[in-house]
Amino acid sequence: MALIHLFRKCNQRCVFCSYPEEGGAEAGAALGSWLREIAAMPPGLVQLSGGEPLLAGADNLCLLLAAVKKLGRKAELQTNALAAADLPPADLARLARALNAAGGYFNVNFPASTPALDYKITRARGGFNKRLAGVKKLVEAGACVRLTHVVSSLNYRQLPAFAAFAAKNLKGISWLQFSYIKGIGRADGSRFLPAYRLVAPYLRKALDVCAAAGLRCEVDHIPPCFLGDYAALNVDMVKMRDGLKGPHLEEKKKVPGCRGCRFARLCPGPRKDYIAVHKTL
Ligand code: SF4
After folding, report:
1. For residues 214 and 201, what is the distance between their CA atoms, to the nearest angstrom?
2. CA–CA dist 217, 199 (Å, integer)
3. What separation in Å is there between the alpha carbon of 210 and the centre of ligand 1?
4. C-alpha dist (Å) from residue 205 to 126, 157, 213, 226, 265
5. Ligand 1 pocket, residue 269 CB under 6 Å
6. Phi then psi for 155, rounded to 5 degrees?
7. Mind listing the pLDDT tens digit for each residue in 39-82?
8. Which domains does the chain have, with CATH numbers?
């Protein structure tokens, strides 16, 4: 897996962005440097990220996706989908075609099921309705769409409501990932990281809702010991079973509470930034 940040600019200011706009050097914001970076990447999925990658424009993105395909790699285009609502249908259609040709998918960060909560998290006025319209347009354009719902202290109590919302209003998405917030960037060491034990009952209810609706789901950054009957939905279990290398091995570490755990062979432990805040599981 290889990640490229096209640039820092974004049309949202999420309170827990892991790659915030302020501070640090701007990534090389030019097609030539992006192409060189992609050509030099280690094997695996190529994740096009930002900032907001759709702000690079359909022409640039189609060229990048064609380069990914030429290298025989698969692509993930990470987006908040706001700009998709404004893209002309012809641009959306060729973007979807280029992504499909690279065996890829849009990974849409969709953080809330109401406009008020969406605004509290993203600080983008009108973002909720635009995102909803954007995702629908991506699906209509024939793209494969994954939703990522970042679980934080701001939204974990609404997880079952979000699952019901997605099942009802976002038909046509390929799958939904519940991903626990990373304690980096603007969320470094922050109050946005709820304890796993508080999140778990809401998350399991949300997974019940998805199962009843036939909506495919997965879970990242919440260990299997908190998922009850849904432990197998934890994405690390497959990576560990298959012996894959990746960030899960560097970002996570077992703690004394893991001793004797039945998942020990298939779980790398909790995130290190979670332990820095909560000290234990
Ligand atoms: S190894 Fe640790 S974090 Fe992972 S499931 Fe077991 S107790 Fe939980």
Report:
1. 20
2. 16
3. 24
4. 29, 10, 13, 12, 27
5. yes
6. -130, 0
7. 998 888 999 998 999 999 999 999 999 999 999 999 999 999 99
8. 2-248 (3.20.20.70)
